[in-house]
Amino acid sequence: MAPASESAYFNKARLAGRPVVKDLPKFDLDAYIANYRGRTRFDRLLLIGTTSPALAPEALRYAVAEAKQGRDIGRYDAATAAMRDIMPYDPHATPDTVWKENVNKLVKAESDRLETELKGYKNNLIKESIRMGYDDLGQHHHRTGNLIESVKAYGRMRDCCTTPSHVVIMNLRLISVSIDQGNWLAVQTNVQKLRSPGQQFAEAQRLTAKLSAAAGLALLASGNYKEAAQEFVETNPRMVQARLDDPADEEAFNEVMTPNDIAVYGGLCALASMDRTDLQEKVLGNSRFRAYLELEPHIRRAITFFVSSKYSACLFILDSYQSDYLLDIYLQPHLGELYFQIRSKAIQQYFIPFSCATFAALATAFDSNEQTIEKELTGMIKRGNLEARINLVDRVLVAKTINARRKVHEHALQTAREYERTSHLRILRMEMINAGLEVAEKGKAAGIGPTFESAGREHRYGVSSVGNF
Questions:
Q1: How confident is the model at residue 105 (pLDDT cuts 50, 70, 90)?
Q2: Does residue 157 contact residue 135 with C-beta atoms inside 8 Å?
Q3: Distance in angstroms (rounded) separating the CA atoms of residues 47 and 13
């Protein structure tokens, strides 16, 4: 019965347009999720459990266990609801009401205690105590999933920040909550505040890798792939040396992403948005990003193949890792567009030397079939990504030819028309001056220089002053 229920759930998801990954990914789930900490562990487990039929049982059990280690009841309900849809006979699918009641009491008691302490700090008028009170309250709301109240608490810290380190802490807290909210504009805003040239924070200089990674993620989520690639490839390599299992390590950012993720996000965004020259100079030749690419050698190989015009080899590597990327919480919504842009660029570059190419030749070059190639070419032409025409009779892609002679003739005619109009206006002005139709300014002889009155008339009759035609 369980397989039938699983099949029904994923069939419904497929009909609803949600991605379903049938193939097993290349990573081991235990090793993969061990690299993360914080709220992103649950988010990634839940996504894997609701997207991959093969990994769903294990991932959802881990998600339920992860939720019960925290105090966010909403996440626990989401995990158990997913288990009821996919594995209704699993014992973990039944909500633990006793645990939920106990957690509710603990959360309420902790909220009341922190708010009472904060009121006492406000009565004492000690800024540092008030700031710490808001900080504790914001972290408490963040842990329990009340993200809106967490943002409010962190925002109220601003007036109590007395040192640069306090400002840095506040903005980092806001960046973290904004990422969990999916408020990417707020992420970029808080990153820019720490990067502001008018305010140089010494503490922020040690966190440049985190700021670049957060900014790149926000730009990726907003669909701005080129700027996202620029942020990722310029990320300080110090994060590569971070100890992911040590929460006290300031260089680690695995509550959001790991150095491996930076290599993948940066590599895919660069392939989708940069030309071959930029890929060679700004990605492969970048000493900063090279440290990240060493963690994901297949991304480095794919970029190298693209730069070397070996497009089919590049696309083959990317297709072989598609299942892994569809199970990534930040890549999944953009993977289709990223792959489309990478493939479109490859077809464009391949087609440049030819005046025409058959569908069969393109299908062979890109390891596809003629029907798929035809759809891709149609989409590229509609988007304006490819200057060509499709001949469906002969099944040939024909490059648009530019008639250089006609273009030169059109330019010459346009220049002649502009010269004719300018000459007409000059002659018209001379005739008006000779006929005494120019109104002179008081105290000046008629015909000596343009006046305000004459300028107004010239403008009214479409006549320009000498030198402004």
A1: very high
A2: yes
A3: 13
What are the distances in angstroms from CA 258 to CA 32, 172, 231, 377, 410? 10, 17, 15, 36, 57
Give how far the C-alpha of residue 140 lies from the chain's centroid of Cα atoms, to the nearest Å: 29
* Main-chain dihedrals φ then ψ at residue 133, nearest 5 degrees: -65, -45
Q: And the tokens for 95?
A: 């909500």
Q: Which of helix, strand or coil describes residue 270?
A: helix
Count the Cβ atoms, other than its own, within 10 Å of residue 29.
18
452 pLDDT above the threshold of 50: no
Determine the distance from the C-alpha atom of residue 297 to the mean position of all C-alpha atoms in its chain, rounded to a whole number: 23
Q: Counting Cβ atoms within 10 Å, is residue 310 exposed (0-12), middle (13-18) or buried (19+)?
A: middle
CA–CA distance, 142 with 150 (Å, rounded to integer): 6
Token duo for residue 94? 């039944």
**The dihedral formed by the CA atoms of 338, 339, 345 and 348, expressed in degrees to the nearest 10:** -140
111 class by beta-carbon count within 10 Å (0-12 exposed, 13-18 middle, 19+ buried): middle
Are 172 and 193 in contact by the 8 Å Cβ rule? The answer is no
Instruction: Please name every residue paired with 358 in a beta bridge, in sequence order, or none if there are none.
Output: 396
Specify the higher pLDDT residue, 249 or 413. Answer: 413
Instruction: Give CA angle at 115 (114, 117), nearest 5°.
Output: 65
* Bridge partners, 397 (sequence order): 357, 390
Q: Which amino acid is at 107?
A: V
Burial degree of 222 (CB within 10 A; 0-12, 13-18, 19+): middle
Q: What's the predicted TM-score (pTM) here?
A: 0.80
**Tell me: the pLDDT tens digits for 222-256?**
999 999 999 999 998 888 887 777 776 777 888 99
pLDDT, position 307: 92
d(CA 270, CA 296): 15
CA distance 208 to 204: 7
Q: Is the pLDDT of residue 185 over 90?
A: yes
Cα distance between residue 435 and residue 395, in whole Å: 70
